[in-house]
Amino acid sequence: MDPLVTFCLRMGDTALILGQQTAAWCGHAPVLEEDIAFANMGLDLIGQTQLWYEIAAEAEGKGRTPDDLAFFRTERQFLNAQLVERPNVDFAHALMRQYLFDAWHLPMQEALCESGHEPIRGLAQKSVKEVRYHIDRSRDLIVRLGDGSEESRAKMQGALDALWPYAADLMATDEVEKTLAEQGVLPDLHRVRRAFDAETAATLERATLAIPENGHARTGGRSGIHTETMGYILAEMQSVPRSYPDARW
Asked: Model confidence over 10-47: pLDDT tens digits?
């Protein structure tokens, strides 16, 4: 697959699956404010997905639409990071998953604002304001709950312990990123890792949460290797368009 198509699918798939997971809290969040906030973040992510899929579809040149990419690919064809497909165990897990994603997503979008590829640069410049809002909100909640009651801290530490190994998949790189960097499409992505490390170290210290010292890095999602949860997510997300493939609004 063309490196540009692969990269755009990785970005779009990651945003889409997190958007789907986030939207699942609509009507189920513990307080109304969070219910609305999670729904809005999900919409932001799905809007970004549309843009990534448009670039991928045009570069691919096979006549596929963003809807085709979202609803008519199989599990192994999705290239999202494994972190975003982790289940909605409880609200602590949802918040920690969102924060770890945001801690990577903001420096990635800021780096892509310098891309030599005009559509990607334009996408990043358009979405980076949304991403800044997302991390401001998730960072605040991580600190408030981590440095809150004994119970809230225990829940947040448990979520961090469970999800931290999967953060590695967000920053995994291979020949795709190397090739695009040589072409000027991507800037140096080492800065994204450094920014992620600095952000999480500072925020988790304020939240009195300890970064796990052990734990095997969970990677593979960006190559189509997923956890057991992914199949259930796609079954729910794709059920209507697969049942009625010719339906139109």
From this structure: 999 999 999 999 988 777 777 777 778 888 889 999 99
Inside any domain, residue 249: no
Classify residue 248: in a domain, yes or no: no
Question: Which residue would you say has higher pLDDT here, 181 or 25?
Answer: 181
Q: What does the block give as tokens for 235? A: 């079954």
Asked if residue 83 belongs to a domain, the reply is yes
63-98 in b/e burial notation, b at 16+ Cβ within 10 A?
Answer: eeebeebbbebeeeebbbbbbbbbbeeebbbbbbbb
What's the predicted TM-score (pTM) here? 0.94
CATH number at residue 190: 1.20.1260.10
Number of independent structural domains in the chain: 1
- The pair of structure tokens assigned to 125 is 């410049």
